[in-house]
Design a protein that fits this description.
By secondary structure, this protein is mostly helical. Helix content is about 55%, strand content about 10%. Among the domains are: about 1-50, no CATH class; about 70-105.
């Protein structure tokens, strides 16, 4: 593995380069820039930070935040919770009524009332004296 010279690396970041934009037909210089690796890195970093900051600011301080999935107002979240509670209770009520109807259909469909258990129960005497 090659050893990197720290001083040489920092010197290379400060070396200047020239970027020239030329007209292809006339070969005239349209614009020329003096750049270094450090200035390019700094420019890209600042533009990235500004772009991210602008995007966050745009979403946080404008109504665009309401278009983000899962984000809403406190009132909408409260009403959603209330609707969820009501829906759960209605589903439970429907389930109870279905069970009742199934039991009623079962009793009515048998039709044979003589097959019911009609054995008499023997109830023990409650006045037992164990003296």
């Amino acid at each position: 593995m090659a050893n990197l010279d720290i001083n040489n690396t920092f010197k290379r970041t400060s070396n200047t380069y020239r970027l020239v934009v030329m007209n292809d037909d006339t070969y005239d210089e349209v614009v020329a820039f003096r750049l270094s690796r450090r200035s390019v890195y700094l420019g890209v970093s600042i533009s990235f930070i500004l772009l991210v900051g602008l995007t966050i600011g745009l979403i946080a301080f404008t109504p665009l935040k309401y278009y983000i999935p899962g984000y809403g107002t406190k009132e909408s979240r409260t009403s959603l919770q209330l609707l969820k509670i009501r829906t759960d209770s209605l589903e439970r009520t429907i389930q109870y009524k279905d069970q009742y109807l199934q039991s009623l259909k079962k009793v009515l469909s048998e039709g044979n009332l003589q097959s019911l258990d009609t054995t008499s129960l023997i109830v023990p005497d409650q006045n037992l004296n164990t003296d």
